[in-house]
Structures are given as structure tokens and as C-alpha cells.
Amino acid sequence: MMMENTISSIQIVEYEDKFASSIAKMWNDSKDAWGGGVKTEEQIIEKHRSSDNLHTFLAMDNNQVVGYCGLSVYKEDIDSLYIPLLNVRPDYYGKKVGKLLLLHALKAVVAKKWPRLDLYTWAGNTKAVPLYKRCGFFWEEEDSNTHLMNFIPSVLNDSLLAPYIGKVDWYKDMLRTLELKPDGRQENGFTYYDYEWANSDTNLTASFERTGRGLSRVETDDFIIKLSLKDHELLEGENHEVKCYVKNKSGKQLSVEVSSCSNERVVCDFNHIYSVEKEVTTTNAFYLQAGPEPEKGKTFPTISVNVSVNGLMTTFKLGVNPKTPITIDTKAIPNVLQEGFETTVDLELENNLSVPALIELELPNNKYLSFHNPSCRIWLERKGKGYVSIPATVLSLGFFQEDIICRVKLENDEEKIIKKTISAGLKGAGERFFGENKNSYYIYNGTYHIRVFKADNVMKFGTNRIGELPFVMFAPMLGKPFSNELSKNKPVKTETTLEKTSIILALYFQSTAHPNIQIALRIQLYAEGIVKRWVTLENRQSSTASVHLQETFYHDWSELYFPLRDDVVVFNEADAVEPGDIASKDISENWYFSNDEVTPIGVYWTEGNKMTMEGWKMHLESMEGLEGCNSCSFPPIYMSIGAYTSWRDLEQAAKGTQSSHKALKGEINLAINENNPVIDESESLSVLFSSYRNNQADGEGELFVNGTSTFKKTLPVNKKIALPDEVTEWKTVNKVQTKITTDKRQSYFDTVLFRPYGEILQNRITAEGYEIYSIDNGIINFRAAPHYYPGLFSLKAQQTEWLDQAFPNLIPKSWWNPWAGGIKAGPPDLSVHSLLKEKTEAEFVQIKDNFANVWSGIRLDTDIIHHSKWKGLSYSQFYVTMPNIPILAIFVQIRNTAGKLMTEEEWHHNLFLKTGKESCVLHLHQKKNHNLIYTVGREEQEIILKDDFYITQSASNDKLHLLTDVNSKVQYYTNKEVIQLVSTNTCEREKNGYVHMQPSFLYFDEDSVPFHQLETVRKLQFRLTED
Prior knowledge:
Number of domains: 5
CATH topology of the largest domain: Beta-galactosidase, Chain A, domain 5
CATH architecture of the largest domain: Distorted Sandwich
CATH class of the largest domain: Mainly Beta
Structural class: mainly beta
Number of strands: 81
Radius of gyration: 38 Å
Strand content: over 45%
Largest sheet: 11 strands, mixed
Helix content: under 10%
Distance between the termini: 70 Å
Shape: elongated
Number of helices: 10
């Protein structure tokens, strides 16, 4: 709906979905100024459908969005609205669009009778900070952020100031120095923000105190009124005085009433009615009660006084920083404890007095800790700080909370005796308990704990190793529209219950936005590190309603695994990923996993609930029907604190089924020939530059084939293009590198492409009394004699033999008797002695991979009929290759599983490599260490291979690379007699019942080729075809 037509052709309108495309263009045009990414129309619509904005104002010019301003309730503090986002398209800088939006937002705040408007920016925002100040914002001095507050709505809605503010134009007549630094006038520990207006008709000053967020001084042409305290820091539990000064400037008698306004921290009772001819100061007593410490950036406890002048009343406020003579902070005990363990209780102390003091602490006997020295002392200068470490023996585990006696001795022999409460969770294996102090609720289970802050009901969790983890869940919100009431409301009741191996904390709230609904937030912590969180509603009225729940959380990800577009994507690039970098529509499953270095964290939720990504945070939305006079529970959200140590484990927990065995994809990918490593010159090759980040820009691509630049072109993101047919002369083996340059970085993608040609020679001969099957592809030759041994007994590359073998004999060697050597694949717990009793036959075969590339080779079929455990098992080993390609693929198909599910047994590929004069050598490249070389030695060596490796031998220039499935375990074993290379893996059972072992590949190359360049080979899959 059109709201106003102001400067030039700029109009301010409310958001509607029809403007989403233009808003996306505005953000994209502004990304250089903001540092943000690319936005789409779909993302804009999705964001606003889950937004908690009260209003979203758009600046329009000729049907284009050129400015944006959100307005919502401020979650971090009371009594304020908030501008979460304000932007002006860069080509409209200097055209007063930002001013229009700010003034429009202020007008809405005034209309809604809210006293304040807040926003955040950054200190270096030199264009915007002067504008903010000119529109009435004050920059609050804080180290951690740049927070601004605007009290103009309080001024414009104030009945006492109304006769005076009505005589000025608050924007044009305001006197303000626009400096690029924090604002504030300092006085007695207070910070005041002063508004001044002046014109020919009147002068007006209104001062607001920083921590109380309220009016503290007024000066008009008729009077001055000022509220004052002797100091900002006041001792709680004591009486103090507040002064109200009134000066009459009018020459006419003023009728004044000053009355008390008690609250939960300040108790006072006074009322003065008097006439003021010149000036009057009233001094009034109040008592400051004990309570939680105020939080920086939020409204402090206040002393409020109502003042009426000639019947027009307003409220004056000053914030106070309540202190005890001594502040004591108990530091968390991070260790896992047991009864009898030695530990220390560390206390940080602060002297809040204006004089030095000797602090003596007396620690009581208790059931949890036996203090070695139950009393200690420390000298602190005025306003000084220090700490003490108190050794203790653990008597039992639980939440230690005790009152200690503090004797505060001053230099004039005065002594103050006060009680302070110290507390700490003493956690250990098998122990579950609840704790509460003045700031937080806690539940503990084993080495894990949950903390809920009383100030805003924010939840964090932690472990004994690093304390609290980089994960935060905010107070849940009900809607729609979503209300952030629980970020400020206090629970009316708390409960804890124990269930088997878990502990549950329940917080009950009475909704103010929905007065007939009671909200219960439950958090369940399991001993394994699983957290379950859910919300229950109780409807106390007869009507039925559909209620939406939004859970919002923040997670500082590290090596993130996320199911997107039906793939599992790992984000492990140097530039950090935030939720806003991921398109919500791309989320294809109900989980994610962050492999944090110290403690992996996973999150999963009920399928069907909607996960929305926004900026630095995530929203999970669900909906339930709430019947009259009934209750309902929303689906829970689960968090794993190290309980699941891999993304596959977490995926299985989230889906309730076996892991999908999906292959990982990188966040940025380049697919040449659709990731088919085998090229066909009769068909055009394609290139696809893809990204799972929604802000990825197009890139400038350059293709190098065997070291020569052959192709340069812009590569559009997520759009496949064809390579020109004449791009290069393809060799049999092609090392391909693609350089992609974007506005952020330069990336390199390496792969190897193969061009097979010619024929494969198949030969069947008889030698040494055995029928031998032989395959020669022009580069490699391999042979099998099925009635001698169920495997290959020879593998040559460029005429060089790589296998150690005993053909045609069976001999004892090292640990084996009989020993044949060579290569074979098979099940566990089936020795060579037993295997030789069984029947194996061979056939020449042709099979296709998942790209329909044709491979040829030998199939060895083994049927087990004698072995007690494996009787009935039938399996086929495949050894296949392509013409003139230096690759041998090996895999197993299980034709009859002998009644076994065959998902747990670890099958093997076993290779015995050349020893003696032509002994093979292992070269291992360790990512976190130096490169290593292992040769046959006098001692046994057993090496687990996780990083890149290759094998050489003196008789060949080639290097042998073994490529296995990512889940395979690869081991290199050597002693004086043998070199053995073994890979093991479980079989996979497809939905159609097909059971197979993932393929392995032996690749020969004169260069050492990093495994990532051969990733497309390693990911090949085979399916059987009918000849």
C-alpha cells in the first residue's frame, strides 16, 4: 500500500512479495558495499515469510526498490523497536533515501507508542553514522559492537514536553555535532545523551541516561528538572538517596508533584506536592534490593520518579549498577571428577569499595568438597581485582552451592561481614544433576552440561574439555507473526526430572502474546551427549488454533557436512560458510554435521519441518493444531555433542535407516565430461562449474591439457557449457588442470582424462599343466589360472612384473602355508588352505560402468561347498581394463550370500608385491608431516595408509597407485620375505538385492598423481551387462 510521496520521485511502501525480484536486484547491486553475496527472488520471499518484522519499508523509484528498512521488536532489551537491516542502493547514495527510510521508521515507532528505536552498524560506516546521529541516534560506547539508540519517540510522546517540542521541527531545529565517535557526557560515573533544539520560538534540552534508557534532565524556557544520584555504582542491600531538582525559569509559580515509582529492585515511598517560585531540591530515600547483575548492552535496574508540572506528568529515570562490597565469581571446574580426586576452586574477586580492603573468606564444610584451607585472605586496592585458588578434595559429585562468609576489613578498622554464594558443577561419569545460580539454570549428565541464561532464555551446551561450544539456541517463538516474548519473559515454574540415563529441564512460561496459552520448554540431556529439545503448549480456552513454532540457533561451523540438492556436501574451504551462504530450498534432508576439531556437533530434526537459513542464523519452523482446552507438542530438535563422530552416523540417526552411502561433493566443483574420466572423441565434452553456495559468481575459466593452455571462456555457475571440438589433441592419458578466477579468489581443479583406443587381446593357453587366461590391453597384461589359485598370479605394466608369486607351485612363505602370492579378493575367515579345496572357474567378460564405458577382462567364479562357515557362498572376482589405459579395476559380486545379510563382514583385496632385487618401495605423502619412504627391512613394518601414497620398483619408471573406496581400510605390511598391500571393506547390498564390494583401481603412471586428481576414477561404479 502506498504510504507517502516525499523527496523527488521516491516513495515509501510496505513490503509485498511482488517486490521480491527488485529487492534481490537491490542487494546484488549493493554487494560490493555490503560484502554480501548474490540474492534471488525466491530467497527474498522465503526470508520474509519467516520474518518477525513488524514492518518492512521499501524506498521505490520508478518501480525499482532503491532502499530497504526493516522494523521489528528488539530482542536484546526491553522497551525498544529495532532496525535489523537498512540499505540504500549505491547509485542512490546522497539522494536522502536513507534519511527518508529512517524518518519513516521513527514515525511508525512513535505511532506505536514505543519509547526507543535501536540499530547496529560498524564503526567504519562513515557514510551512515552521521545520518544516524542527525536522525537522533546516539552511539553507545561498547568494545564489542557499534550500538545506537534513538530516544526521539520518547520525546515526541511525552506529555510534559509536548508544549515545547510542538514549537520546533525536531529534525530541522535539532543542534547536533556529528562526530565519528561514541556519544555521551560523563558525570559521576553516568553517561548522558543530550538533545538540544532551538529556534526563534523556544529552546529545549532533554537528556537521557545511558543505562536506565530514560529521561533524566529537561530544560525548557519555563523550568529545569534534573534527577541525580551520588554515584552510578551503588551497594545493594542498603539505603540510598535520589535527588530531584526543579528550577522555575518562567517567573510564574509552578505547581510540582514528585512521587515514587517502585520496581522489583528499588523500594521507595514518597510523594511531594509543592509550589516552586525559584528552585527546590527534594531528597528521597530508597532501598536497593539484591538481584542479578545487570548485563552490558541492556537496561539496568532503575530509580524512577514521576514528576508533574502544572498537571503535565512524565517519568524521570536513572540506571544504577548494583554492587556488593565484594564481587566473587566462581570459575567453572572443567575436569571430569571422581570421589577422592584433588581439584581447585578458583574465585575471582573485585573490590567495589572506594577504599582498599583486606578480604577474608571462610569456606564451610559441605558434602561435596573438603577444602584443605577453609579460610584464606587477599588484599585488594580500591576498585581492585584479584583471584584465589583453593585446593580441595572431592567428596561427592553434584552441584556445589554454598554461602561463604566474607569479612571485609578496611584501613580504619571498620569491618563489613557479608555472605556470598559460590557454586560450581562437579561433574563426572554416571552423574546427573540440576543446578541454579543467580544468572543461569544448569543440567549436567556425565561430561556434558546444558546452560540456560535467565536474562534471555538462551541455551548453550558444553563439555569438560573446552567448556561451552560455539552453538547457541535462542528462546523459541510462537506465531505467526512470531513473537520474541520468551527472550524477555521469566519462567513461572521450573522442573527437573530423571529418566533412565537422561535428565530433563522444563521451563514453564505464561504467554503474553497469547494470554490463554502456557508454554513449556523441555531440554533433555543424555549421558552420551545427545540433547533433545521440544516445546509443549497448553490451551486454556475453548477455541482451536493453528500455531507455528520457530526455533532459532547459531552455530560457528567447522568442516560442515550438509545434505543439499540430494547430495552430501562438505564445506571445508578456507573462507568460512554461514547459513546465509546456503539456499534453504537446497536442503534435501533433515540434518547437518559440523566436524569441529575438538567436539563434533550434529543437529537433526523431524522430516517435514522447514529449515530456513538467514545471515548468521538458522530457523526451524513447525506447525501444530492446538485444540480448545487441550495441549500439543511440537516435533523435537536433536543435537549431538560428540555422540556421533561422523556425518554418516548422524545421517543414520536422523533418518532412522542405514546410511545412504552417498559420495561427498565439494562446495565448489568442476565437472568435465560430467565427471566421466573416459572421453569419446566422437562426442563433445561438457564443462560444468557448480557451487552449493548461493552467492557464487561466474568465473573466468582457463583449461590446461598436459600443461598447454587450450581454452579460455567465462564459466557460468551451475550451467553446463560445451567445449569446442577442436579444443585439443587428446592423448591416451591427459592431465587436465582448470583455473577459475572469480571476484573473490582463484581456484584450480585437477583431473585425469583417458582416451582408450585399439583392442584388448584375450588369450587362453595351457602352461605348467594349468589353463591360463590372459588379458593384454597394450600397456598392462594380467593372467589367472583358476584351477591353480583363485586370483591373478601375474600383473605386468610395460612388460615389468609387479607381483610376487609362486606359480605353478604352492609354497610356505613367511606366515603363510600354502602361499601363492599374486592378487585375490575374498571373504574373511577363509584361509588359502580351505579356499584351494573349493572350485573356481574363469571366463572372459565385458561389463559397463555407470557411464556405459566398456571394460574387458577376467571373471573368476568361486563356489564354496566344503567350508563349514561359508558353505553355499558363491562370488565372482572381476579384473577388467580398457584398451591402452594403464588401469586395472578389481571388484567382487556376491552371487549367493550363504544365508548371510553380508553387510558386516570385511572382505579383502590382497596384493603381494615384488621383493628381492626388484623390491617395491612405498612412498607415503603425509598431510600433517614430511614425506616418508618405506622399503623391505629386517624388521616387520605395518603401516595404515590414509594419505596419498604410491609404490615404485627399481625395474620400472612407473609408479603404482591404489585407489579404493573412501570407506576402505588400506594396510601395507612388510617383513624380510614379503610385501603385502591389503584393502578391506564391507559389502553393500542394493535395494534390488545385488550384493557387491566397491571397486578398487590399480593405476600406473610415471608421475606421482595425487589421489584427488583421480577422484572420478575412484567413484566409478560397475553394473553387469548381458553379452
